[in-house]
Please model this.
Amino acid sequence: MPSSLPQQVDVAIIGGGIIGISTAWALTKAGLRVAVFEKGVLAGEQSSRNWGWIRSIGRDPAELPLAHRANSLWREIQQQVNVGYRQVGLAYLGENAADQAELNKWLDSAQQHPTGARLLTGDAVNQVLAEPSQRPWSSALHSAEDGVAEPQLATAGIAQLARAAGCQIFEQCAVRGLDIAGGRAAGVITEHGRVAADRVVLAGGAWSRLMCGNTGVFLPQLKVHGSALRTDALPTGLDLAVNGKEFTCRPRADGGYTVSKLSASVADVTPDSIRLLPLFFRAWMAQKQFLKIRFGRRFFEELFTPTRFALDKPTPFEKTRTLDPGPNTSSVHAALRQLQQAFPAFKGAQVAQAWGGMMDVTPDALPVISAVDAIPGFFIGTGFSGHGFGIGPAAGELLAQLVQGIAPTVEHHAFRLSRFRA
Ligand SMILES: Cc1cc2nc3c(=O)[nH]c(=O)nc-3n(C[C@H](O)[C@H](O)[C@H](O)COP(=O)(O)OP(=O)(O)OC[C@H]3O[C@@H](n4cnc5c(N)ncnc54)[C@H](O)[C@@H]3O)c2cc1C
Model:
């Protein structure tokens, strides 16, 4: 049980992942009284389980202003606390003309934004990799401005800055639901009591749809299972994050590598995926080479999870303190084998750990960073669709600006909740 909850704050934040904590940091710096409520432990879910990429390459152009701003914030964070941020660069590799055309397509789409990305060909590709490869890489989309940070350190580090600025953070404290008075958000009902707040932010990751549904707000969001492994420390020259199609890898601060592949993702069929099929069908088709669709245990788990519940007794948020789905082992081991074939320096790599995480995805793979028009005082930052870590600090800053009612410093139209209709 957390030591004495505050009676009243300016902003109550639901969720202690990178989005909730970055929002809290920005709001606390602006002088507001902020409390964050986390049902488990800080960054227990996606925010500590991701690959640690901070990338502009491959992003929807709508997110590029956030990615650009995030680079400055990551630098600012790293200057104050070690989160393992390094601007080492990131490359998507190509082997043939079709790959190169695909890489160029993205470059064209991103032209209006300052990404630092450029297409490398010939020897320039080998120079940037700085590690002999047995694959005939003929092109690379490379950005020297992209980088990496340590997911195990990042949210904790930002939380340290937020606490130092006066933010209160309560772990093992689930929010059961919103307190709504006179049609507007008036606080949160936690498992340990009510906290009044002028404004409430939901940054609940994969749980946001459940919270929204019980509050009468439509949020089309599904869960996609992702996996990764890490190797023990290993000397290679590869010191940038790389996507080689059948594998991805990034150097870690401990001298090892985090390894996976884009197609390690699995979408379990659930009652929600049937309900939301009309909205997600196009996205699933577009991603079909990367996404496996599976029917199994999760269907029944979610079928028996209540979607409507009272706030005066334990809710599903307390039942699962930390969503820990386990890894898709065969997929990440296959990725490691592909990496070893491509770069012989990885031949002796030892697997230290493999893990899984549940990503929260929207139909257009863009996040919701938005006020909820139907409930004044209620804001949402969620649906980062498998790429919210890198832009997390900037997304939190944007959400904090919306909460304060000040003009956002980045374009945010693409992220409004009202783009979705039930
Ligand atoms: C395997 C994998 C690889 C990825 N790789 C990358 C990458 O390389 N780069 C990148 O940019 N992104 C990546 N991502 C995505 C990235 O991790 C997420 O987009 C980001 O962490 C989302 O942060 P969040 O704060 O929204 O969610 P989360 O980190 O999931 O945090 C939400 C928190 O809210 C809490 N919560 C929910 N409901 C309640 C409640 N009612 N009361 C209290 N607390 C509640 C949860 O316990 C949780 O801790 C990856 C994700 C996965 C799974």
